[in-house]
Amino acid sequence: MLVEIKERLKGLGVPASIEDEYILNFIIEKVTNHIKTQTNLSNIPVPLHHIAIDMVVGEFLMMKKSMGQLAIDGIDFGLVAKTIQDGDTTTTFAIDKDNMTPEASFNAFINYLRHDSFDFIAYRVLTW
């Protein structure tokens, strides 16, 4: 799974370094255990494999971003000023849905990658 995750990250423009492998392996275990716990299965079902990959990528990107270690070409995570008024200083930042900041768009993408437990419902097994 590690190779596929590194390829997914590379495709997103965030190549994983050798130093990132420990963190990625930790996140793989975390996501794998989460899926197994949610489904009550001992293995991840094949249809959930790509969801697991995306979840690991989402967790990795969120961790790197929150630690200030994420550098993506062309993305500036600073707020974009939508309106600026000099007299009595009024500044409005572009955070509405139609004019999202790059950071808001990136966060929405990370949330998409991290998925929801709703994706596991079809594979959930009852235990007694």
Describe this protein's structure.
This protein is mainly α and 128 residues long. It has one domain (2-73, 100-123). Helices cover 48% and strands 7% of the residues. The protein has helices at residues 2-11, 20-39, 49-66, 102-114, and strands spanning 81-85, 90-93. Strands 1-2 form a two-stranded antiparallel ribbon. Helix 1 crosses helix 3 (49-66), helix 2 (20-39) crosses helix 3 (49-66) and helix 3 packs antiparallel against helix 4 (102-114). The model has no long low-confidence stretch (mean pLDDT 80).
- Number of individual domains: 1
Q: What gap, in angstroms, lies between the N and C termini?
A: 31 Å
Mean pLDDT: 80
Number of strands: 2
Major sheet: size, sense and barrel closure? 2 strands, antiparallel
